[in-house]
Recover the amino acids of this structure.
């Protein structure tokens, strides 16, 4: 199973590709799409969408995961992120890739074990879980990899839970 993780941002949209085999998750590639603050919004969004479509075409992910927008105390900064997220959703959808969405807290909980983890802890765990010999840079790429790892973990947990339910039901336990 190949999974594309996306950390949306108008200036920097991180992406990461992981592959899961037999319960083991490994990094295949990662990067960051940069847009210029001097460019018009539609140009920036088209650039994000075009670059993500190229990533999908190159790595052919089976599924994708995107971080949801956290509005918190600063709604003003969340709006550009929401625009970038929209461009990412359209790009992935146009490529026909199934998409999961996760809050920052869900991603941190899945990768680190606590929803209040800081960026340094997330980066460390991404490096550890993916068996990397370096910290993935920039932070946006590390966050995208964390999103992909979260998807792999929650997908596997859901499959295991569903499998246990079906197995029990088949044996007359439910």
């Amino acid at each position: 199973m190949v999974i594309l993780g996306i950390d949306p941002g108008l200036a920097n949209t991180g992406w990461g590709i992981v592959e899961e085999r037999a319960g083991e998750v490994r990094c295949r590639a990662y990067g960051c799409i940069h847009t210029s603050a001097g460019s018009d919004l539609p140009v920036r969004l088209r650039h994000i969408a075009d670059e993500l479509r190229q990533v999908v075409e190159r790595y052919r992910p089976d599924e994708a995961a995107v971080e949801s927008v956290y509005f918190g105390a600063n709604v003003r900064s969340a709006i550009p992120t929401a625009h970038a997220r929209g461009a990412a959703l359209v790009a992935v959808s146009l490529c026909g890739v199934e998409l999961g969405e996760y809050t920052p807290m869900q991603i941190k909980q899945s990768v680190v074990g606590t929803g209040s983890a800081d960026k340094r802890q997330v980066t460390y765990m991404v490096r550890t879980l993916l068996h990397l010999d370096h910290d993935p840079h920039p932070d946006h790429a590390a966050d995208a990899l964390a999103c992909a790892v979260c998807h792999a973990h929650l997908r596997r947990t859901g499959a295991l839970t569903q499998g246990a339910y079906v197995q029990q039901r088949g044996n007359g336990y439910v």
Summary: The radius of gyration is 17 Å. The chain is about 50% helix and 20% strand.
